[in-house]
Amino acid sequence: MSNITYVDWQLLIIITLLVIYTALTVVNTVKPRSMYATFGQFTRFIPRYSFFAPDAGVASLEFAYRDHLTDGRTTDWRDVEDIRFTISWWTWVWNPKRTRQKALDVMGFWLLNHLNHVYDVGNDTINLRTLDDDINHHSHEMLVRFAVAQPHHQQATATQFRINQSLRSEDHTRTMLISRAYTLNSLAHDN
User: Fold this and answer.
1) Which pLDDT score is estimated for 160?
2) How far is CA 119 from CA 133, 157, 184, in A?
3) Which backbone phi and psi does 177 adopt, to 5 degrees?
4) Which long-range contacts (CB under 8 A, 24 or more apart) does 180-189 make?
5) Which stretches of the chain score pLDDT less than 50?
6) What's the chain's Rg over C-alpha atoms?
7) pLDDT score recorded for residue 97
């Protein structure tokens, strides 16, 4: 005869549901498209842990800028490295650079989503130089102001930024957006 004669069915059901929910969360974080294809809109109720991370487990955005010089040349793209997230023993308590990187990621995602919604570009690189009309979105203005506020070449007259997406599963980055050139003394743009 077994020593286990009493089974708490409520506890067994709760543990089973928690195990299923945890498994769905892991699959949704690793393969979100397959989860959406299987469960549709239900996946919005399943957490995806890459949402909060600026250097996410699935994808992250990288911000770079270059200057347009008085003689018509452009400088090389410069990544904004001073805000890249590095792990130290104290970063789980205090890391102001992570907040700044998160703000850049959010502004980049908002701008990409807005432009994709308005212009329906799909997976192509969004080239703002080809758009004739103004981009009336707060994230665009904030990213322009951020690019203009960066250190620039002494002969720079304008700056331009780009947003790349890096996936942890791939070794290369993909250019998501290339901006117009913006003069350094105002937010007026040059085509």
Assistant:
1) 92
2) 11, 29, 27
3) -150, 135
4) 180/128, 180/129, 181/68, 182/144, 182/147, 182/148, 182/158, 183/157, 183/158, 184/148, 184/152, 184/156, 184/157, 184/158, 184/159, 187/141, 187/144, 187/145, 187/148
5) 1, 51, 54-56, 84-85, 188-191
6) 22
7) 63
